[in-house]
Amino acid sequence: MEVFISTFLKMFFIMTPFFVLSVFLTVTSDASNHERKVLAIKVTTSVIIMSLVLLFFGKHIFSIFGITLDAFRIGAGALLFLAAVDLVKGNKDGAKKSDDTALYDLAVVPLAIPVTIGPGTIGILLVMGASFETTSSLIAGSFALICAVLVIGLMLYMSSIIEKIVGKQGLLVISKITGLFLAALSAQIVFTGVKNFLGL
Q1: Domain map (residue ranges) of the chain
Q2: CA–CA separation, 68 vs 178, rounded Å?
């Protein structure tokens, strides 16, 4: 249960749900409510598939490239920190839908990658996949990951309602707060990597 809760909370914040929601609303500004719901389902499905692939095959990727877990912790933490800084400063640009691009073609790129699963998220998924030592912890972690993605998918599915309740300015504020949490989480990941690497 502890693995499930910790993994769920980590992945929920790492995937920056409120930033994803704000980009989703920007991309679908001219779309109907039905089109938003269909796109939300496509994005959620894409993110689940890609996340599980990264989670399950992370150990093999480490072995192929000869990368240690602690080295990847430091690298992934640094990338995650940069993403957090962008969130707080508001430098990330939402990809707007061009006239000649079908709305549903945006489900994988850019909404799934790199908006939802950015470089920092990919790094954390690889680290998590390699750090699960037992089959039970891997199953619990996988289930928690799927649940976190489904919650984000539900937010996208109900984006029209959330937009009316919170407002775009409210989403911007929440996105910045998420950035602060991410900065703290990335620092902890880097500290853990450095500590283990130095044998402290």
Answers
A1: 2-97+120-195
A2: 29
Phi, psi of 122 (to 5 degrees): -60, -45
Question: Token digits for 188?
Answer: 């902890």
Phi-psi region of 117 (alpha: psi -120 to 50; beta: other; left: phi over 0): beta
What are phi and psi for residue 30, nearest 5 degrees?
-105, 5
Phi, psi angle pair for 68, to nearest 5°: -80, 155
pLDDT tens for the chain, 200 residues: list them.
Answer: 888 999 999 999 889 898 899 889 878 878 899 999 999 999 999 999 999 999 998 778 778 888 887 888 888 888 888 878 877 886 554 444 444 357 888 888 788 987 899 777 888 898 888 888 888 999 999 999 999 999 999 999 999 999 889 887 887 788 788 788 888 888 888 898 899 889 88
Q: How far apart are CA 128 and CA 77, in angstroms?
A: 12
CA 62 to CA 23: how far, in whole Å?
32
